[in-house]
Amino acid sequence: MRLKPFKKEKLTNKQKKILIALSSLCFIFLFIAIYQSFAAYNIKHSETIVDAKVGSMYDIRVLAIYLDGEHQPNMTTFPTDNAFFTHVRCYVEGEFRENIIGIWENDSLEISGFTSKTDCNVYFVSTIRNFAYIAPTADNPNPFQTFTVPSTGEYQIELWGAQGRGNNGGYVRGRINLNAGQVLYIYVGGQGFHNRAGTIPGGWNGGGNAWGNPDGNNNSGGGATDVRLTAGDWNDTNSLRNRIMVAGGGGGFVVDAGYTQFGAAGGVTGIACLSSFFGNANGGTQTAGGTAAFGTHSPPSGVTVQGSFGQGANGMPGNNRSGGGGGYYGGGSLMYCAGGGSSFISGHAGSNAVNAAGTHLNSPNHPSGKIFTNTIMIDGAGFRWTNVRGAQQQMPNPAGGFYALGEGNFGHGHARITRVG
Question: Cα 166–378–272 angle (5° rounding)?
Answer without folding.
Answer: 45
